[in-house]
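Q: Got a minute? One more chain.
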Amino acid sequence: MSPVSVGRRIRAAVGAAGELMITLGAVIALFAVYSVWWTDLVADRQTAQQAARLRAGWSAPPPAGGRARSAGAVGFLHVPALGRGNEVLIRAGTGADVLDTGVAGLYEAPYRSAMPWDPVGNVTLAAHRDGHGARFHDLDRLGPGDPVVIETDDHWYVYRVDGVLPQTSPDDTGVIAPVPERSPYTRPGRYLTLTTCTPVYTSLYRLVVWGSLQRVEPVDARRTPPPELTA
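A: Always. Here it is, folded:
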């Protein structure tokens, strides 16, 4: 076989391999987009069902002795900076069985999250940034002074963002401690900590947002939201 023929065959093989790699890359990219879109769709359906059940329970007459506090669905997180109409269901737990349903999960370890109604403590929440509802996709929009509201069956808990940690290790568990490390706080109080993965489409690091409770408002018969959610 002449050197010219060998060269042609080599160029043909390289060209075919290059086309195969381009095709494979396109397939992988399309699969990633499809996976994110599909998990978002499934999570939206799941969380809509859970939210409807919770609100239906709230609207039912309370039993004698008052409504019992649940360790499952707790309420809703409202973050105006993430856009009007943003409402995130809050549930206990941060495992895939919880977060993949499109909710914000209350940490249970290494520090158990406080509840909004506790007289002191840190309410610590995690949610996906991409896929599975991506409830905290735009969490990096939050900055000091932004309001964050938790809605329960009987009260609105209004927090103000005091600090943001743009990036830290997933092993930096001190950021969700009762008095969170690296936060603006130095003594026990009523705090809120929101965490998610960063940068987007990775799980390399964690983004952390800290807030403190400003006031508590009772829920009226019409469930009129506080002004922070209507501005």
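A: Helices lie at 3-59, 96-99.
Q: Perfect, thanks.
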